[in-house]
Amino acid sequence: MSLQEIFADDSVSIRMENAGSIEERAAVWAINKAAFARADEADLVDRLRGDGHAILSLVAELNSGIIGHILFSRMSIDTASGLVPAAALAPMAVSPTHQRKGIGGLLVSHGLETLREQGEKIVIVLGHPDYYPKFGFSTDKAAGLESPFPREAFMAIELSCGALDGIRGAVVYPSPFGI
Q: What is the pLDDT of residues 76-119, one digit of tens each?
């Protein structure tokens, strides 16, 4: 599937963010601020981009307007035999007027497929325990990982079968996360 492919009812499309566009960056910032009702996540996106940690940034468009955004950034797992690369899914945001219509699901699904195609093996998310498992995220897959987060909301997915087999260690988020 192409990043430009049309999804759902043929009116919502998922594509790579044009982070070089001032207007697009402003739209992504506004979507994150509105979705979370605060600027923290919007500012996090800017810091992750600015520090070079972003590995995939997608937007959802409707009628040429951005209505959703998802960011994946580089993180790692500190194991006894060294650092294992992983991707952090955070944040994911949909405009409040377009929430609960499947747009977030399109962003997550498309992001995971794109990361798989790019050769990523592990994705970690801190998220709602009733939402992310439908995409394959699991607390069981994250069981060997140490994090400061509640176990029920800390999940992982293998994009390559067995990628987390035998992996034990602390997750290391990029510095903009402040963890």
A: 999 999 999 999 999 999 999 999 999 999 999 999 999 999 99
What angle (nearest 5°) sits at the alpha carbon of residue 96, between those of residues 92 and 13?
60
* Residue 24, token pair as written in the block: 């697009």
- 122 pLDDT higher than 50: yes
